[in-house]
Design goal:
Number of strands: 6
Helix content: 10-25%
Largest sheet: 6 strands, antiparallel
CATH superfamily: Hotdog Thioesterase
Strand content: 35-45%
Number of domains: 1
Order of helices and strands: HEEHEEEE
Number of helices: 2
Shape: globular
CATH class: Alpha Beta
Structural class: mainly beta
CATH topology: Thiol Ester Dehydrase, Chain A
Radius of gyration: 14 Å
Length: 140
């Protein structure tokens, strides 16, 4: 999916779209996507001025947005609006900097009522930079 299709399946808008490409969206199973980290983004000015590092909270949001495409139904070309409900066991192993491409993979682990726990990993090249569990809730 290119950015035009992503915008149709994601309720977020500039400056809070944290996904540049979705390469896999298997309904209620898994999703994969990419975020190109740019020096031109607002966070780079102050986090940190002489050594910009992609903030962990934005990395979590990137994982949640890519993970939200688990709920994308290709047949209807629609997704449910989802909300980040819990962040668990998130680990940041290496910094992510402008020029990096963050590759995110998400897999549905468990469903309970309206809550869906997903396992997420984020990598730059062959290097794992973050991983953990997110819980998303969604409505139709």
């Amino acid at each position: 999916m290119e950015i035009i299709d992503i915008a149709k399946g994601l309720p977020h808008r500039y400056p809070f779209v944290m996904v540049d490409r979705i390469t896999e969206a298997l309904y209620m199973k898994r999703s994969k996507g990419y975020k190109n980290i740019s020096f031109n983004e607002q966070w780079a000015v102050g986090h940190f001025p002489d050594e910009p590092i992609y903030p962990g909270v934005l990395m979590i949001e990137t994982m949640a947005q890519v993970g939200g495409f688990i709920f994308y139904n290709e047949e209807s070309r629609a997704t449910h609006k989802f909300y980040l409900s819990a962040v668990n066991q998130i680990k940041f192993m290496h910094p992510v900097v402008p020029g990096d491409t963050l590759a995110v993979e998400a897999e549905l682990v468990e469903t309970f009522h309206i809550f869906h726990q997903i396992k997420c990993t984020a990598a730059v090249g062959d290097k794992m930079v973050a991983s953990g569990l997110l819980t998303l809730s969604y409505s139709e």
